[in-house]
Design brief:
By secondary structure, the chain is mainly alpha-helical. The chain has helices at about 1-45, 50-70, 70-90, 95-120, 125-145, 145-165, 170-190.
Length: about 190
Amino acid sequence: LFFTFYALLTNYHILCYNIYSEVHMILYLQIAVALIFFVNKVLVLVGRKSGWLVGAVAATLGLFYFYLIGLYIYTALEVCLIILMSYAFLKKSERSVRVETALRIGTTVMMIAIALFAFSGGLTVVELISCTGLLWGTYLMTSGSLTTGWALCGVAHVFASYLGYGRGQVVFADFQVASSIVSLIGATTKK
């Protein structure tokens, strides 16, 4: 007992530092993910292809962020978003039927995973709507259905902001509100 107590006292600073470091890492990731995803939305709205690359970078950071805050379905969603946004950035003016088919299959597989999470009780209604909206909205935007894609993303951002506020992720939630406004502009102005 004495040695356990002594070990706790001598390593207390390491324990505190590790907790402190993880909290700061989550905060830095939260700010980076929120800001970079917002820039992604604005660049895509104004028609810059680089917006898709920025979105892929944000989704890559989002993998770590969502994992650390325990939103595992969002972690999986980010993998799909990386693939979709990278495709949108790399695609040429002519479409590849093979790649488009692979994207449809991948999106469908992710929807099946979301459904399994939902039916097993692993998702809330808010997470379900947000994940589904972001997945299909991004897919539709990369496929050229801009109005519907923007509208789905807008709804998803509203629900993601509610989720963010509920988890104490205020910066992320605030930028989700801002992204929903950008999405509303996209849904009403892009065809």
